[in-house]
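Researcher: Re-running this chain for the archive, since the previous output was lost when a drive failed. Same request as before.
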Amino acid sequence: MDGRAIDKRLIDGSTRAESTLRWPMQPIPTDRMWTTFWRLLKRVFCTKRGYNQRDKMILDTPMQDWLQVDRHVKHMMYRTSRKMYLRETVDDLEANLVLNPDGIAGAIEQLDTGIIWQYLEHPMGNYFLREKTVLFIPPQAQPVTGYFQEERLYADIAYTVQPIAHDPPTQHPAVIDDEAA
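Model: Regenerated structure tokens:
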């Protein structure tokens, strides 16, 4: 997520992140719906290159600076230039198993404990070691994916986001339609 491409995992329905907003319940999109969605993205944002649905979509115009705004989406991992942040979760053993579109049981639901761990980049390697808990994730941190090996946390991508704008636009609170009247 370097601002130059749309990662396939973020647009194929396989990535799920919690949100503090109340989203309407929607059925799982059909293959035809996904094809239409990808075609729309390609025609609007990625017109200069061919696109294979197994690859990332290269944007015609890279995105600009990240804005300092309150976030409603809760990704599992975030990254800055020298630190990573991980939301602690526990298995919800009372939840029903999630079924994928083929009817196959998937992973057990995860519950967010509210604890955020900060990991510091190790000076001798491309991994991060747990440092302490923090109260919030910095606004310049970008969502990433990663993996653990022993006590080490590895990010799947490098941090390449530009510096934050000094005078970001004003953020307006979200309004739910039935409360606007």
